[in-house]
Structures are given as C-alpha cells and as structure tokens.
C-alpha cells in the first residue's frame, strides 16, 4: 500500500546523499511520490537543499512516537514550546526565548500517522528570510520497526542555503541523539 503525505506542490530538490535532483520522498528505504496540495505553499525552487539522517533507537515505535509528538518531550528535544491542534492542515507555532527576546517560528502540520510518520512545514524567524511560502522547509520523521528497536528517519528539505544546511545538519544530529536518549531512558 502506497503512503502519500499531505504535502505542498513539489519541484525537484537536490538530495545531499546522491547529489541528484529528486521530487520523491524517501522514507525507510522506500520511495514515495509527494502528493500535491496547493492550499499550503506555492512552490519550492530547484536550488534548495535537503538532508536525510537515520538512527536506530532501542525503543518500540509507541514509545518513540510519544517522545516525538508530546509537547513536554518536544520542549526537551527541540527546546521550544509547541502549539497546535495536531490535526493535518493545522498551524503549528514553535515558541522560545533567546538572548532576552521571545521568538515564534511557524509551520503547518502535514501528516500525522500514529507510530509511522510525522511531518510539517517550518519557517524560522532566525532565518532572515521573509515569511513567505517559498521560504518554508519541510521536516519529516518516519518510524519503522527494526527488530527490538525502531529506525528513526529524518528528512529536512527545501533548505535555502548551504549555511542553513550545515546549521540544520549539526542541529538535527544533536537533536536526534536527544530524542534517542529520551526514548531509551523512559
């Protein structure tokens, strides 16, 4: 059975792993064509970057899912207070305090398939980019049972610049380690 995530229109992005342009989404070694929904964002440009990371977590999918989608845990692994109705298509706000200032990053919840897939769009107030549809990136967490563990895969695409890519890569590596720690030590 093919799984299509509720995602905005897609134009090819550069896959950092292969260096090739692609308009397919790779989750747990399977390739899914991105579904089109023009109500969210207008476009992605071919020059945007994407990253993909995987990590085995010694926890069952239910436990890992709780860590990924519960506000109290999100505060621990992402450092933000998240607000959303948790319904696909609903806005998400990521609120945090930094250097004496309050910030709000934004997104839209795209897919929430219990213990399988959690995806959303994301715009950072730190990015220096205008809050415009083309400046939102896409973040997806997928879970797949792997024996006594769960393989956690992260995809982050539509990253605007190499500098943002490097920043995101470093942050996501640390974040995945924290998610793993929380899920394995609960």
TrEMBL record:
Which InterPro entries does this chain map to? ASHA1/2-like_C (IPR013538), START-like_dom_sf (IPR023393)
Any idea where the Activator of Hsp90 ATPase homologue 1/2-like C-terminal domain is?
Answer: 59-183
Gene3D superfamilies xrefs:
3.30.530.20
Family according to the record: Belongs to the AHA1 family.
Q: What is this protein called?
A: ATPase
């Amino acid at each position: 059975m093919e799984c299509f995530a509720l995602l905005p229109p897609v134009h090819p992005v550069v896959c950092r792993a292969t260096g090739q342009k692609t308009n397919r989404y790779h989750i747990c070694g399977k390739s899914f064509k991105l579904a089109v929904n023009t109500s969210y964002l207008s476009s992605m440009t071919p020059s945007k970057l994407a990253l993909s990371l995987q990590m085995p977590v010694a926890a069952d999918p239910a436990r890992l899912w709780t860590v990924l989608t519960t506000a109290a845990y999100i505060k621990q692994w992402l450092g933000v207070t998240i607000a959303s109705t948790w319904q696909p298509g609903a806005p998400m706000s990521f609120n945090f305090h930094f250097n004496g200032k309050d910030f709000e990053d934004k997104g839209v919840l795209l897919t929430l398939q219990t213990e399988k897939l959690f995806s959303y769009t994301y715009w950072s107030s730190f990015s220096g980019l205008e809050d415009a549809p083309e400046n939102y990136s896409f973040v997806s967490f997928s879970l797949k049972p792997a024996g006594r563990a769960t393989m956690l895969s992260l995809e982050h695409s539509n990253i605007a610049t190499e500098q943002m890519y490097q920043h995101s890569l470093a942050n996501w590596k640390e974040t995945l380690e924290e998610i793993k720690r929380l899920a394995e030590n609960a």
